[in-house]
Design goal:
By secondary structure, the chain is mainly alpha-helical. It is built from four helices and no strands. Helix 1 crosses helix 2. InterPro entries: Gln-tRNA-synth_Ib_RNA-bd_N_1.
């Protein structure tokens, strides 16, 4: 199910809004992607942040902000 939180998560990871919506249609894939993002954040920071990860104020992806 497409939730605003999941859409914000996927766009925060660098997917376009259209690609994020397409990903949300595949429940198994979107579940795996959410779990992978959560594990990555737990490993990097030791916490689960509130969604959205990073506000989409620019075209930069999360990866470009972190590295």
């Amino acid at each position: 199910m497409a939730t605003p939180d999941s859409l914000a998560l996927f766009t925060g990871l660098g997917l376009s809004e259209n690609k994020a919506r397409e990903t949300l249609k595949n429940e198994a894939l979107s579940t795996q992607l959410r779990e992978a993002a959560t594990q990555l954040l737990l490993n990097m920071f030791g916490v689960i942040p509130r969604i959205p990860l990073i506000p989409r104020t620019s075209s930069r992806s999360v990866a470009s902000v972190w590295w």
